[in-house]
Amino acid sequence: MWLVGLLASPLGLLAQYDVNDPKTYTLSGLEVEGAEYSDANAIIALSGLVVGEPVTIPGMQISDVIKRLWKENIFSDIQIRADNIVGDKIFMTIVVKERPRISQFSFQGISKSQADDLREKINFIRGTILTESKRQSAIRIIRNFYVEKGFYNVAVDIRDEPDKILKNGVLVNIVIDKGVRIRIKELRLSGNEVFTDAKVKRKLKKFHEKAWWRFWARSKYVPKQFEEAQAALLEAYQEQGYRDVSITRDTVYTYDDKHVIVEMDIDEGQQYYHRNIAWSGNYKYNSEILASVLGIEKGDIYSLGKIDKRLFGDTNGSDVSSLYLDDGYLFFNIEPVEVMVEGDSIDLEMRITEGPQATIRKVPLFGNTKTSDFVVRREIRTAPGQKFSRSDIIRSQREILALNYFDQEKLGVQPIPNQATGTVDIQYTVEERASDQLQLQGGWGGQIRDPNTGEVLYGGFVGTVQLAFNNFATRRMFDANAWRPVPSGDGQRLSLAFQMNGRGYKNFSVTFM
Q1: Which helix (H) or strand (E) holds 60?
Q2: Which residues share a beta bridge with 224?
Q3: Is the backbone of residue 190 left (phi > 0), alpha (psi -120 to 50) or beta?
Q4: Sheet holding 2-7, edge to edge
Q5: d(CA 100, CA 37)
Q6: 79, 97 in Cβ contact below 8 A?
Q7: Which run of H or of E encompasses 360?
Q8: Are 102 and 169 in contact (CB under 8 A)?
């Protein structure tokens, strides 16, 4: 007796009982049929049906079971069957048909290297279910992959057929037609008077129209690069004081099957200049000192980039933030606010929140699996009890890297502030790298013989072998577990060298530092 069946969609719910005469039973038995790859107990748990509890037929309870299982997206057919009814007890079976699983997948129409790149991106795994959402996700990923390479008209077709060997398996063939790479035939500009066409095109980084003389630069059309180029252009205008610059229209249309034409209208606006700059909230340093560090004078071009650099990001550490951060004011904040715009002049107010000075509480160190803590810590300039200093952190980073024991890309410094207590933990993370060196040199030189015996004294084979252990540890020489292959971690240098020049000269040297 079938209670409810589901074929392909939750809209296919079919009631086999009189909806006007529902009956309540005690579920006395529940089994699963058709689950070859899915766990039967997991299906029962997902269904929400519990043996020993009441179940009403017909009713929303059974429909909800179907919906819950359908949401898992692993079944193509779900039915619930009443096997037996004894009095007020009912025995039921959940009958499922599992969706096919990927047994193999391949690419057609592209190179092996591109197929390898896509294989990692689309996340097709053998043995997993091929769902419609997974299919559409793969199409989107593949399309974006080729659009970024300039193949704007790429077509993707994912075909599948039953695997004749593996039951319930499908062979997936991903057919890709890249089409031709779309290039920019012409870039047409309007509205730009301050910047010439040539200057605007230079500012549109990585976005160039096709030109025979620019053979080294690609002219492919990539929408993401177009957006980035527009942002770079606006930033270039703003650096020159054109705060209100905007791109009022941009259009891309097809020229032929290989090229597009890009049109762009620019509203440059007017150029602005600094007038008055006021400071508020500053108690540690007076306004004259801060204005001197800022380095922006009345009448200077109003540049948002320069303001940001002089407040927060000078590479030499001569910005306003560094003045505070090097003196312990970790919780310092400054906000530039435009308080008046009059004609082509702008007045700024620098609103400062100094906060308390932060004291270093702990300096944890992680990742030095071979190098001893004391070797690294003697290069660290931040110590518990000191005031926080950004320049000390930068110096510590530089000197840790100078040891040449750690991967430069993996060195991390993470301040962990606690404003409530006015303290900060500075966490250093490193990753060991090989630092030992092996040097081999060899050659063949002229021979010098003994005039009496004719024996070769010098010459012939000339060779040098040098082995340098740059992170040696003498104090661990008597630790058997430390010989991997030699004791290391204390930053000492041990060099072993052997030289020979024929049979007449041999030299062995040991250097320890």
Answers
A1: helix 60-71
A2: none
A3: beta
A4: 2-7, 75-86, 89-98, 23-33, 54-57
A5: 10
A6: no
A7: strand 359-360
A8: yes
- Where do runs of H (alpha helix) occur along 164-294? 197-203, 223-239, 287-294
CA dist list (Å): 223 to 25, 151, 220, 228 = 61, 11, 10, 9
Tokens of 213: 């003389």
Joined tokens for residue 234:
């606006």
User: Which domains occur in the chain, in start order?
Assistant: 2-98 (3.10.20.310), 101-177 (3.10.20.310), 183-267 (3.10.20.310), 273-353 (3.10.20.310), 359-429 (3.10.20.310), 437-512 (no CATH)
Global pTM?
0.62
Q: Which of 243, 256, 129, 266 is nearest to 188 (CA)?
A: 266
Secondary structure of residue 502 in the 3-state scheme: coil
Q: Which two tokens stand for residue 482?
A: 């430390």
Dist CA 173 CA 117 (whole Å): 16
Please provide the size of the chain in residues: 513
Answer yes or no: are the C-beta atoms of 266 and 187 closer than 8 Å. Answer: no
Neighbours of 151 (CB within 10 A): 20
Determine the residue type at 375. V
Q: What single string gives the DSSP state of each residue in 6-24?
A: EESSGGG----S-TTS-EE
pLDDT at 10 exceeding the cut of 50? no
Closest CA to 425 of 364, 373, 374: 364
Lowest mean pLDDT among 5-14, 68-77, 321-330, 460-469: 5-14
Residue type, 313: G
Q: What is the pLDDT of residues 311-322, one digit of tens each?
A: 987 767 788 999
By CB neighbour count within 10 A (0-12 exposed, 13-18 middle, 19+ buried), where does 385 fall?
exposed
pLDDT at 473: 78
Q: Which two tokens stand for residue 440?
A: 């081999």
**Predicted pLDDT at 497:** 79
Mean pLDDT of 328-352: 93
The structure tokens listed for 477 are 């020489």
For 113-136, the pLDDT digits (tens) are 898 889 888 888 888 888 888 889
* Cα 69 from Cα 99, distance rounded (Å): 13
Give 246-266 pLDDT, tens digit per residue.
999 998 888 888 888 889 999
Helix axes 60-71, 40-47, angle to 10 degrees: 130
Residue 245 per-residue DSSP state: -
DSSP element (H, E) containing 466 = strand 456-472
